[in-house]
Design a protein that fits this description.
Methane Monooxygenase Hydroxylase, Chain G, domain 1; 88% helix; structural constituent of nuclear pore; NSP1/NUP62
Amino acid sequence: MEAKTLDQVVGDWNKRVQELKGAFENQANQVSRWDTQLVGIAEDTNSVASAVLKLEEQATNLENQLQGIEASQKDLATSLKTAQESLSKKLGAIGSDKSSKARVEALNSVEELFDELRRVQATLYSVFGRVQPVEGGDGLLDLLNNHLSSLQWIRDSVSRLDKEVSTLERKPRP
C-alpha cells in the first residue's frame, strides 16, 4: 500500500465525490425530463379520453333522435294507411245523404296529416342541421336523406288524396 498524505486522500475523495455528483445530477436531469414527458402524455391521454366521452354522448344523442324519427315515420305511415282506409270508406259514401259530412271528415284527416308532416319535417331539418357539421357523418346523412325521402313520399300521397277529395267535392251530386 502506498503511503498517502491526508491531503492526497481528501483530494482523491473530493474528486470521486465530484464525479459521483455529476453522474447523479445527469441521471436526475434525465428523470426530470421523463417525468415531464409522462405528465404531458397523461394530459394528452386525458384530453383524448374527454373528447371520446363527448363524442360518445353526441352519438348516443343522435341515435336517440334517429329512433324518434323512425318512430315518427312509422306513426305517419300508420296514420296514412288509416287515413287512406277512412278516405276510401268516406269516398264510397259520397253518393249517400251523408256525403258532405264524409267530405268534411276526409278533409280534416288530410289536414291533420299535413300538420304532422310539417312537424316531422321541422324535426328532420333540426337533426340534419346538427348532424351535418360532424365529420364522418356520411352514413348518418344517407340515413336521414332516406327518411326524408320516405316522408316526402307520404306528403305526396296525402297531397294526391287531397286533390282527389277536392275533385270529388266539385262533382255535381246525383
